[in-house]
Specification:
The chain is mainly α. It is about 60% helix and about 0% strand. The protein contains twelve helices and two strands. The longest helix has about 30 residues.
Length: about 260
């Protein structure tokens, strides 16, 4: 471990480029894992500090994606409201699942109660989709980050990704999830490497080493809301049938 004496106090915290990447992707200051009770910028080299500060002030990829999603038209018309149909399908799905649990003779009372509690939590999560004030409260509590309108649009894209006009939006959202997962995987491997090499020793930059890296794994995710949208999936067979007028708008068509 003598090599560490040659590195101290150098560390990855000094990488201005990586901090710029994190900021441009959309990692918020209040979401960063704090070390030493100091702002992360105190470790950045002075030559890179202005660029890091500029990256904080500019619009991030997350913000741009959120604004784009909020502009996505919703499946609603004068005689059709998708979200009302979707809400009914969700209620039907949850009631059917609860009925299966209730009629399952293999499960004991304790197991049934546990499953029902899980479904009640799931139902609460679904209900937040249909109540903007409840959803915004959950944003304030840190359970969501993506806005109410943007979440609706992203879910719409996920549910009807087979429609021609939604192919590319779905691919874009998938790539954003890939980006988040790749960065998380890199951080995880960094954590494993640090654990294997130095155990629970302090890092060369003065942090708690592997423990800091472990905590940053979850705190530094940016597009977790997108990957968590699968929570709101329902069986394809239960998806509301869309009127022809809306299906036409979701496909490529030509007027002759």
């Amino acid at each position: 471990l003598e090599f560490r004496d040659l590195l101290t106090p150098a560390s990855g915290f000094q990488s201005g480029q990586f901090r710029q990447i994190e900021n441009k992707i959309g990692l918020r200051k209040d979401s960063r894992q704090v070390y030493g009770g100091k702002n992360y910028k105190t470790k950045v080299h002075q030559d890179d500090l202005n660029k890091v500060l500029e990256s904080e002030k500019s619009e991030s990829l997350f913000t741009l994606i959120e604004k784009w999603l909020e502009r996505t038209p919703f499946l609603a018309s004068e005689d059709y409201n998708f979200w009302e149909q979707y809400k009914a399908a969700v209620s039907k799905m949850i009631l059917n699942d609860k009925k299966i649990i209730e009629e399952n003779d293999i499960l004991g009372d304790f197991e049934k109660e546990s499953y029902f509690n899980q479904y009640n939590a799931t139902e609460k999560m679904f209900n937040s989709l249909f109540n903007e004030s409840v959803f915004n409260k959950m944003i304030d509590e840190g359970q969501f980050r993506l806005s109410y309108k943007a979440t609706h649009a992203a879910l719409l894209i996920l549910l009807y990704r087979d429609q021609a006009i939604l192919h590319n939006p779905y691919r874009l959202l998938s790539k954003l999830i890939d980006l988040d997962e790749l960065l998380t995987t890199w951080r995880y491997k960094h954590h494993l490497l640090a654990t294997r090499m130095i155990g629970k020793k302090i890092g060369t930059g003065g942090s708690v080493g592997a423990q800091y890296l472990k905590k940053a794994l979850t705190k530094h995710r940016v597009f977790e809301d997108l990957s968590s949208l699968t929570t709101f999936l329902i069986p394809r067979s239960d998806l509301p049938d869309l009127p022809n007028s809306i299906l036409r708008n979701l496909s490529f068509h030509y007027d002759i």
